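I can't quite decide. Please look over this sequence plus structure tokens:

:::
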Amino acid sequence: MSLRLVEERKARGWSQAELARRARLVAPVLSTIESRRLRPYPTQLRRLARALQWPLEQAERLLDDAESAIRS
């Protein structure tokens, strides 16, 4: 998830602080999600999907990819 998340955030010209604000997260949490050190909780995932205007199914697929990366 993190690489796609970073790309989407930067494509919009948003800082981590801006995406965190829009997703109602704190910036340090977003940073750990983007760096793949934290798997977002379902609530956080929904908030990110809503802020980025992603269908939730797309965000869930990206979460599965991120989970695989965290395990390796």
User: Anything to note?
Assistant: The domain at 2-71 is CATH 1.10.260.40 (434 Repressor (Amino-terminal Domain)). The first helix runs from residue 2 to 11. The helical segments are 2-11, 16-23, 27-34, 42-52, 56-71.
